[in-house]
């Protein structure tokens, strides 16, 4: 089990670090033009955040959290993303209740837009929990990190540095592991991002409906291959200044250990909690209690426990209002990097999510949907 948790932690950290690298590359390559335009348009940020949030899985959330940490987008856009995001729960919804999943994602998108705009007008601090010096470094005066060209690949390989060789070995090694099945050698990616497979299996044994998560694992694998391919291109073509100052110093040395340790600690803690608490037993016929449980479980930065609400809805046991509340509050692993970077920002975003989820859930109970 520790090996599986380490693998999950490594893949999540790779996702986050990879998105940070790609964002930094694009920002420097374009001299920050796109990020500056995004910074000046908070409503565009909220729109993009809402769209990124409804992307199944956590990649959209990872991207927006990375942009927030670098102060490219503001807190309202982050809130919109986390409200719209359902994490890996979205994969299960689209495989078991596709019509409801489409309807639910449209509702989440609209709610995310509205709450994002309200947050923009009523929350004065637009970078909660971030230090003022946390930015995407552009080094405008240093032309050596700009204007990359693929033709530099041969020169870079001829005069390869230790940093470039180390990054190349790491990226190629992970790609080979994915393509040959060393990673996901025995359906490990089906439990990626904290999917509580044992809980899901137990629930399925008691019902006729079975659920196949192969598509989820395939999506994660394909996403990682594309992301690693982009990083490989960057490492091969970027100049030494970018590799040393941007990727190694600013991204890897500053963020890798912190994100890895936080992710590992949270997943390990949740694993031990699940050994003693069966979340399925918490469900009762009292809708207000179920709503409260859904809101509390939504604080957990993983997707596994939330599967129970999708399955109960699919079996006609749970009303849509509570499934909506669960989807609003929970973010899968999308909020883990935020927790690692700023606990204050995590708490602030979760507080708003819980308030919005509670309102949606109560309206669902009162209106009977």
Q: What is the first-to-last residue Cα distance?
A: 40 Å
Order of helices and strands: HHHHHHHHHHHHHHHHH
Overall spatial form: globular
The assigned structural class equals mainly alpha
Mean pLDDT: 77
Main sheet properties = none
- Percentage beta strand: under 5%
Low-confidence region ranges: 136-146, 185-214
As a percent range, the share of helical residues equals 55-70%
User: Radius of gyration, Cα only, in angstroms?
Assistant: 21 Å
Put simply, the count of helices is 17
Would you report the number of β strands? 0
Structure description:
The protein is an all-alpha fold. It has a domain at 2-127 and 148-276. Helices cover 70% and strands 0% of the residues. The chain starts with a helix and ends with a helix.
Which helices and strands appear, and what pairs or packs with what?
Layout: H1 2-29, H2 33-39, H3 42-53, H4 59-69, H5 75-84, H6 89-96, H7 98-122, H8 152-158, H9 162-180, H10 197-205, H11 214-237, H12 240-276, H13 287-297, H14 307-314, H15 320-329, H16 336-341, H17 343-367
Helix pairs in contact: 1-4, 1-11, 1-12, 3-4, 3-5, 3-7, 4-5, 5-7, 5-17, 6-7, 6-14, 9-11, 13-15, 13-17, 15-17
